[in-house]
Amino acid sequence: MTVSRTVPQCAPHQPKPEHSGATAILTLDLGTKTGWALRQTDGTITSGTVEFKPGRFEGGGMAFVRFKRWLSEVSRFAGPIGSVFFEEVRAHAGVTASHVYGGFLSHLTAWSEEMEIPYQGVPVGTIKRHATGKGNASKEEVIEAMRRKGHAPVDDNAADALAILHWAIDEEVVK
């Protein structure tokens, strides 16, 4: 499992005053290479990617076992997670991508239910429009938009997770 983390190059995004007692927010761009962003209770934002590709001699289910284990580790690290948001993909490039996304989504929602954490999907166009002003923005445009906010996303997956996080904060979907 490969884990990359980026920390904003500028001061951490500070929660709005009404959010001062907030719980952590976790946002995800689901896939074999999952992008993630986390706003901790003190307002610090971290992000990165983690890869859940099964090894050569492992069954395909091992990716999902590792994903659920990773979610639990993030939860222990971050303290109480108050909400989870994920990129809601409605069309996939192929059958395999659809199956992979569905598997990660199933495990995320089951884990969230078990942990009693509210979760919500955010449509791709909504994320892009909020980040860049265009619902059909390219990956590079989303990465650049997150850089302008002071982040250094390692790739488009992390940039998408950061964009979801900023959407949730700015739209006051979270406390």
* Distinct helical segment count: 5
Question: Strands across the major sheet, in which order?
Answer: 1-4-3-2-5-6
| Rg over CA atoms | 15 Å
- The tally of structural domains comes to 1
SSE order, one letter for each helix or strand: EEEEHEHEHHH
Tell me, what's the shape?
globular
Q: Which fold name fills CATH's third level, the topology?
A: Nucleotidyltransferase, domain 5
Regarding CATH, which class? Alpha Beta
Helix content: 40-55%
The appropriate CATH architecture is 2-Layer Sandwich
Q: What oligomeric arrangement do these chains adopt?
A: single chain
> Which blocks of ≥5 consecutive residues have pLDDT under 50?
1-20
Largest sheet: 6 strands, mixed
Total beta strand runs: 6
Rounded average pLDDT: 87
CATH superfamily, by name, is Ribonuclease H-like superfamily/Ribonuclease H
Q: Distance N terminus to C terminus? A: 32 Å
Q: Name the structural class.
A: alpha/beta
Percent of residues in beta strands? Answer: 15-25%
Outline of the structure:
This protein is an alpha/beta fold and 175 residues long. It has helices at 62-78, 95-115, 124-132, 139-148, 156-170, and strands at residues 3-6, 24-29, 33-39, 45-51, 81-88, 119-123. The protein has a six-stranded mixed sheet.
